[in-house]
Amino acid sequence: MNYDELNDNELISMIHESSEEARDILFEKYRYIIDIEVKKYANMAKILGYDYNDLIQDALVGFTDAINSYRDDKLTALASFITLCVDRKLQVSIIKAGRLKNKLITESLSLEHVYSSYASPLKDLLSDNSLNDPLENILKEENLQELMIDIRNSLSDSEYEVYSLMINGLKYDEIATLLDKNLKQIDNTIQRVRTKIKKILAER
Question: What tens digit of pLDDT does each residue of 108-132 get?
Fold first, then answer.
């Protein structure tokens, strides 16, 4: 059988029948998608300390998931479906990496630490620089862990995602790309985060 003469739907049908030859053909045909998607998230992975090889493996998992779940009655072209599945898999991996890193640094996190991406300490990123800025009070707090718990409890899941990525050094445009939102949405979210954190600090 000449596999090269088969179209995507025919190859997919053969893959569902456990044809490794058909799988290899589709992989070679669409491996460029993996290369593009991995490069898209490589810088974010580096910032978060997520291994590049792990990123590639995650992309391969997304590719495999796409091939296994695709059906010829889908309105989406196979290439678009593979791109979607790989992108979603890498997004989840990067977000999990950010959450893990944030968890690891929580106990030692300092509002005085200067984040290179912003050239500013966290207290300035969250602060409005007012004379009576309640963020100044945190410098006297002995239990930063308790504060971080309060912050987590006060933020919605989407707000905490943005907050976690920000304190892990990602820039506004990188956060917007990762979460598939525009810069205005990210800015609005960060303003809400600032407001909630200031309220927590003012009540202490």
Answer: 444 444 544 445 555 555 555 544 4
* Residue 145: closest CA among 192, 202, 95, 105: 105
The C-alpha atoms of residue 10 and residue 24 are separated, in whole angstroms, by 14
Q: How far apart are CA 18 and CA 22, in angstroms?
A: 9
- Stated pTM of the model: 0.52
- In three-state secondary structure terms, 119 is coil
Whether residues 128 and 36 fall in one domain: no
Q: What is the pLDDT of residues 58-83, one digit of tens each?
A: 999 999 999 988 876 666 788 888 99
Q: Which of 121, 128, 100, 95 is nearest to 197 (CA)?
A: 128
Tell me the residue range of the domain where 56 lies: 3-104
Our count of domains for the chain comes to 2
Last residue of a domain, one of 104, 133, 163: 104
